[in-house]
Amino acid sequence: MATGTATQEASDLTQKPLATSDRPQLEHLAADEPGTTHAKVVELVRRDGGVVVTGLANKELVTRIRKELKPAFEADIPDESGFFPTTTRRATGLLGVSDGCVDLATNKLWIDVANEILTSTCRPWYGETRAHFVSKPILAGTFGFQIAPGSRQQDLHRDDSDYHLPPGLDSCMVGLLVALTKTTAENGATLVIPRSHLWDSERAPKNEEAIPVELEAGDALIFGGNVFHAGGANKTKDEIREVVGLFMCKGFMRPEENHWLAVPPPVARRLSPQVQRLLGYGISPPAVGFYRYKDPMQVLFGVDDDETVRL
């Protein structure tokens, strides 16, 4: 949550347009370095709004994901709303079509970061007895994008606006954006305004405040849902930028993407209980998401473990 000093500091940094090199930047951490702990990543996300983790996905995983998503991209139809340009191809429901994306979604560093930022607890009274409930985050959406030459820039936006959060609250979301191809300012690298998560809801973002986050294939951007960002314009003649985005939200909230249709029970049955819970088949304690007063994972998949909720 922003303090008055931090908000003023962020405002002072952007009173006039700055050269890209003079604007606040995001730090880079190498995935294979011992110092790249989930605590360090969380610290930087809370301070700057985001952080780049280089080498989060290895070459083999990137190649596998690209191969698995190819049919989904080819089946996409243009976005009628206009939010995505017609030169962008999209894929959704990634955990149902790509085992590589399942591996990415369960990356330990990513899961630990999401759990640290988004896990919620409550201690309500039931009569004179106090209960303690823990609600872990689930996937809000899983998306793949192919941004072709000629694609225009998206509008700068905050992902958590979908959830109508009251002013002054920390974000209910965190995102993981992984490059499947080299991304540059020229081919449309994601634009981010560092520390814009400190702004109040009255301040509008400006393009001159944003920086392009350039990534090698396998590098990742981890960022809060309250950070202003946008897909950049692809100004090249022949480069297609390909990226995968996984977004987590607080477990008591409805996911942005309907995973139960995208990854229906017959498909989800072959996935692990961990992935089934990431898709939202489990319950957010104490009772959000139950089916006939039972945990749906018991009913659908016969799962009965230490995370099963009993009503």
Q: Can you give a write-up of this model?
A:
By secondary structure, the chain is of the alpha+beta class. It has one domain: q2cbj1_9rhob like domain (Jelly Rolls, Sandwich), CATH 2.60.120. It contains ten helices and 14 strands. The strands form four sheets. It has a seven-stranded mixed beta sheet. The protein starts with a helix and ends in a 10-residue tail after the last helix. 41% of the residues are buried. The model is unreliable at 1-15 (pLDDT under 50).
How would you summarize what this structure contains?
By secondary structure, the protein is an alpha+beta fold. The protein contains ten helices and 14 strands.
Number of helices: 10
Which structural class matches the secondary elements? Answer: alpha+beta
Q: What is the domain total for the residues? A: 1
Helix content: 25-40%
Major sheet: arrangement of strands: 1-2-12-9-14-8-3
Q: What is the number of E strands?
A: 14
Q: Write down the CATH class.
A: Mainly Beta
**Distance N terminus to C terminus?**
34 Å
Query: Would you identify the regions where 5 or more consecutive residues have pLDDT less than 50?
Result: 1-15
Rg (CA only) = 20 Å
Q: Kindly estimate the percentage of residues that lie in beta strands according to DSSP.
A: 15-25%
| Shape category | globular
CATH topology: Jelly Rolls
- Biggest sheet architecture: 7 strands, mixed
CATH architecture classification? Sandwich
CATH superfamily heading: q2cbj1_9rhob like domain
Pfam family, one: PhyH
Family: Belongs to the PhyH family.
Cofactor: Fe cation
GO molecular function: metal ion binding
